[in-house]
Amino acid sequence: MTFRLGVDVGGTFTDILLINEETGESFREKTSSTPEDQSIGVLRGIEAVCRTAGVGTDEVRAVLHGTTVATNAILEQKGARVGLVTTRGFRQILQIARSFVPGGLAGWIIWPKPEPLAALEDTVEVTERVGSDGEVVTELDEDDARAQLTRLRDQGIEALSISFINAYANDRHEVRVAELAAEILGDIPISRSSAVLPELREYERTLTTVANAYVQGQVARYVRNLEGQLHGSGLDADLSILRSDGGLVSAAVAADSPVSLLLSGPAGGVTGAAWVAEQAGFEDILTFDMGGTSTDVALVQGLTPRVGRETNVGDLTVRATSLDVRTVGAGGGSIAHVPPLTQALRVGPQSAGAVPGPASYGHGGTEPTVTDADVVLGYLPQELAGGEISLDVEAAHAAVKAIGDATGLPSVQAAAEGIYDIVNENIYGALKLVSTQQGFDPRDFALMAFGGAGPLHANALGVLTGAWPVIIPPSPGVLAAYGDATTSMRDEAVQTLIRRFGELTDEELRSLLHGLAEQARTSLLEAGLSEEELTTSFAVDLRYHGQGFEIPVTIDAADLDGPALDTLRAAFDAEHDRLFNFLLSNEHELVTARATVSGPRPEMAATVLDEGGPDPSAAARRTHQLWVEGQEVEATIYDRAKLLAGNVVTGPAVIAEMDSTTLVLPGHAATVHPSGSLLIRPTDSAAKD
């Protein structure tokens, strides 16, 4: 037998899922993350899950990993000192940036503009110029380039980015400067814009290239370290890393292009959620993944997550294909506080993280968190992560009491309920970003909650959004690891080619896209996949001639054999009308073409529970007191492992399992689907499938 491992590292917990490739049987493990070196927690979790399954580490064939190393390097500003080489006259490209200021009316006064990832003193210009058509306007002055690279070396840069104007149309000068840099600077990471993002718009291309160089060293070291530790522990397995768009790449490719990993962690959860939704019979879902530090939300339509062309991490926005995931600082470890100036209760974005963690963890934390509020309200059992963490109820009460004292609330329960309600509103605001602000009514979707803390807040979010049923997948705390383990290898090739439709033929479009597909296949074939296993999808960024922005439009491979331009024209008009409610008579224009090639999706055996009828009493553990809507109510705690298909758990109730806890509110009921998911609805519709 052979096994594959899904590994997801979060800010608080590291989740491990071991899957038997022949039977589909899975084993899970949850352990505390080790921020000082993520590989320590990963290896500890892998060894623990192999012991649980009774298998040797040598039987693991593949390790599939969602990582936050690149994300954390940017958020914590712990990347490399980056030098930037650009075309003469464009030295201040990162400082000029785009004229956009976030925030309200006075944002331009109070917004602290973030410092560029490459400082101005580490930015140099060289004499060269390429036109937008790819023709060389001014030849590269190699003596000038050598002098500027020597200057950067003497300043002590740790990584180099090269971004010349219009290099997407002709990369010859960038390639030559990279060769010179290898001679002068030695063995440091080098990122070329023509390789990282061969698209127009010099600012976005430069920023993305600099971001790639900024995190490249850390990601490469982490990947090497993890591979070394895996092999040292007896795992002779291939390591693959999850990209922001939900596909897998080999460890070597990931180390070369880490900017594509910035949403690696959240992407695993969305991918896993789509798989679970398919098993439960739902195609359109909103997802929210609530962990210890943050909550990630996304929209899945027709079992396909929406994909965006930008990746946002903190104040940084780079051009990299990623699932359209939005993040809010609302997790189980989010700290509740009362600012002296306003005396209004706030929750997050600061988090207690894994160390010291919430007060109830007993690791030295004293500040009140969402987890502590859940403990006070009775929503959490006294043990988490299968007994690895025992909760200190008295410490939770003491921490939350400080909030009650600061706000004048009548009881510690009232303070805890305030924390619970506010964090739910924060998540609701994030869900609106991917639904109503994108033209989607959340009531047309089911709501899937996962992550260690998600199921505790899922029922309340269903009430706020009107999205029913609320779906709690099997093993919600390790769903991101499940997504890592059940996705496929993927790579893409991109080319900017600005052409009005009147200047382009169907045959030229076919030739362009098929050529890009050949480029994208290369890394997958080198990873050992065969040509027969690969599937290809195409997309183009279109606009009306004269517009300053594009809209991505997909096109089926079969449509390329017909009137492809007419098909794209109609698809673009439909999407433009949906987004903006108007169309223009201007000619359509192609800006960027993209081909994505994917390997086969692993075959996984679906879970099928035994039928048990509506009575869930065989899974009942004991009764328990909860605080709900200002009063104490008696609830039943159920063991999820003992629930059978068709069981209906009527609220108020708590459903406990190894990696998460589900709260069913009064007036609602959770029906157990044969696939193992819990479907929560208001009681007047709980019996409907």
From TrEMBL:
Any one Gene Ontology MF annotation carried by this entry is: 5-oxoprolinase (ATP-hydrolyzing) activity
Which Pfam families does this UniProt record tie to the protein? Hydant_A_C, Hydant_A_N, Hydantoinase_A
Acetophenone carboxylase-like C-terminal domain segment(s) = 507-671
Residue span(s) of domain Hydantoinase A/oxoprolinase: 205-490
Domain Hydantoinase/oxoprolinase N-terminal intervals = 4-184
One BP term from GO: glutathione metabolic process
The highest taxon in the source lineage is Bacteria
- Write down any Gene Ontology CC term: cytosol
Q: Which PANTHER family match?
A: 5-OXOPROLINASE RELATED, HYPOTHETICAL 5-OXOPROLINASE (EUROFUNG)-RELATED
Instruction: Specify the protein name.
Output: N-methylhydantoinase A
